[in-house]
Design a protein that fits this description.
It is a single chain. The protein is of the alpha/beta class. The protein has a single domain (about 5-150), classed as 3-Layer(aba) Sandwich (Udp-n-acetylmuramoylalanyl-d-glutamate--2,6- Diaminopimelate Ligase, Chain: A, domain 1). The protein has helices at about 5-10, 50-55, 85-100, 120-125, 130-150, and strands spanning about 5, 15, 25, 25-30, 40, 60-65, 80-85, 115. A 6-stranded mixed sheet has the order 2-7-6-5-4-8. The N and C termini lie far apart (about 35 Å).
Length: about 150
């Protein structure tokens, strides 16, 4: 199950650009130079690169810090979702996505690929952004909750 435009509107109601209800995001990245097919670009710091490069590498939307000015070259139709804090926005996005796919028991499903290359952020953060590890934690928590309810 891919992350969708409507999901982002739920998390980030302040946005500009064309409303593309059928947009699905195959990748989410904080690195403009990474190939991001049907990507969602989230510049987390100055090392993330330029929005123009992200668009050239396949980004079809971005999450943007409200405090920073958008580049003049940003296409008017290009969806930009605004947040007060991009790092918190990433956390909210991951939590939302995990809740979205939790309980979906299809054996094989298409999933959005999250690729964060910001090493400083990853070192400072005690949480993982590895979707497989996060899914395992949810499964363990859910099984623990089931045991607690029975007792």
């Amino acid at each position: 199950m891919y992350l969708a435009f409507e999901d982002l509107v739920t998390i980030f109601p302040d946005y500009k650009g064309i409303r593309e209800a059928d947009h699905l995001y195959f990748t989410v990245s904080d690195n403009a130079d990474t190939e991001q097919t049907r990507g969602l670009f989230i510049p987390l710091n100055d090392d993330s690169g330029e929005l123009l490069d992200a668009i050239a590498n396949g980004a079809i939307a971005a999450i943007w810090d409200k405090q920073k000015q958008l580049p003049r070259y940003t296409p008017n139709h290009f969806p930009i979702f605004f947040t007060e804090n991009p790092t918190s926005g990433v956390r909210d996005l991951l939590r939302f996505y995990l809740e979205k796919i939790d309980g979906d028991n299809k054996e094989k499903m298409n999933m959005t690929k999250f690729a964060f290359l910001n090493k400083k952020l990853l070192k400072e953060n005690k949480e993982t952004y590895d979707i497989a590890v996060m899914l395992e934690k949810i499964a363990i928590n859910n099984s623990n909750n089931d045991i607690e309810r029975r007792g």
